[in-house]
Design goal:
With 203 residues, this protein is an alpha/beta fold. The protein is built from eight helices and seven strands, in the order αααββαβαβαβαβαβ. The strands form two sheets. A five-stranded mixed beta sheet has the order 4-3-5-6-7. A two-stranded antiparallel ribbon has the order 1-2. Helix 1 crosses helix 2 and helix 5 packs across helix 8. It binds zinc ion. The site of zinc ion (ZN) has 8 residues, from helix 4. The site of zinc ion has 8 residues, from helix 4.
Length: 203
C-alpha cells in the first residue's frame, strides 16, 4: 500500500517513467508540482497534451513537425541536393546548431540493432530510398550522420551499400572522425560536430 493519496501516487508513478528519473526524483517533482501555482501545473499539463496532439512526423523527412511538413522541408532556401541522414530529431537540432549545413535531412527513427529486434523495416530507410529514387529528385549527396556507435556504424554501412546499388551516381559520405566514439551525436559540442561535418568523407 502506498503512503500517498492515490492521485499523488499516480503522479509519482507517471513521473518515474521518465528517463533518468528514479523514484526519489519522481517524489520530489510530484511535491514540487503540488506546491506550484495552479497556472504552472496547468501549463505543464497543457504543454504535454499539445506536443502529443500537434506534433507529428514530417511526411518528407520524418523530422518532428507541426503540420504535414517540418520547418526545414518547408524552407525553400535549403539546399535540396544534399540529404543528411540522422537517427533522431534531436540530432537535427545538434547539427543545426553548428551552422555548417544548409541541406535537408532524413530522420531514421533509430539505428539498426538486430539484438534489440530493430530491423530495416522498423526505420525510415525505405522512405529514404524512395526520396532518392524519385524521378524528380535533385539529390546529389547523402551524408550519413548516424551516431559513431556500433549500431550507428552498422546502419550507415547498410544504407551506403544499398545506395550504391540503387543510385550509383550518388555521393555517399560519412561524418569525419573526431567525434567521440561510442557517444551520441547530440552530446558532441558544436565545434567538434561542425568540423566532423566539414571533413566528411566518401563511403
Ligand atoms: Zn521534413
Amino acid at each position: 500500500m502506498s503512503v500517498y493519496a492515490p492521485p499523488i501516487q499516480r503522479l509519482v508513478t507517471e513521473l518515474s517513467k521518465l528517463p533518468g528519473v528514479g523514484s526519489r526524483t519522481a517524489q520530489r517533482l510530484a511535491f514540487h508540482i503540488l506546491r506550484a501555482p495552479v497556472e504552472d501545473a496547468e501549463g505543464l499539463a497543457q504543454a504535454i497534451r499539445d506536443v502529443k496532439e500537434r506534433i507529428t512526423l514530417c511526411e518528407v523527412c520524418a523530422n518532428l513537425a507541426e503540420g504535414p511538413r517540418c520547418r526545414i522541408c518547408e524552407d525553400e532556401r535549403r539546399d535540396g541536393t544534399v540529404i543528411c541522414v540522422v537517427e533522431e530529431p534531436s540530432d537535427v537540432i545538434a547539427l543545426e546548431r553548428t551552422h555548417e549545413y544548409r541541406g535537408r535531412y532524413h530522420v531514421l527513427g533509430g539505428a539498426l540493432s538486430p539484438i534489440d529486434g530493430i530491423d530495416a523495416e522498423d526505420l525510415k530507410i525505405a522512405e529514404l530510398f524512395r526520396r532518392v529514387e524519385d524521378p524528380a529528385s535533385t539529390i546529389r549527396e547523402i551524408v550519413l550522420a548516424t551516431n559513431p556507435t556500433t549500431t550507428g556504424e552498422a546502419t550507415a554501412l547498410h544504407i551506403a551499400e544499398a545506395l550504391r546499388e540503387r543510385a550509383p551516381g550518388l555521393a555517399v559520405t560519412r561524418l569525419a572522425s573526431g567525434l567521440p566514439v561510442g557517444a551520441d551525436l547530440e552530446y558532441a559540442d558544436e565545434v567538434t560536430l561542425g568540423r566532423a561535418f566539414a571533413g566528411r568523407r566518401a563511403l
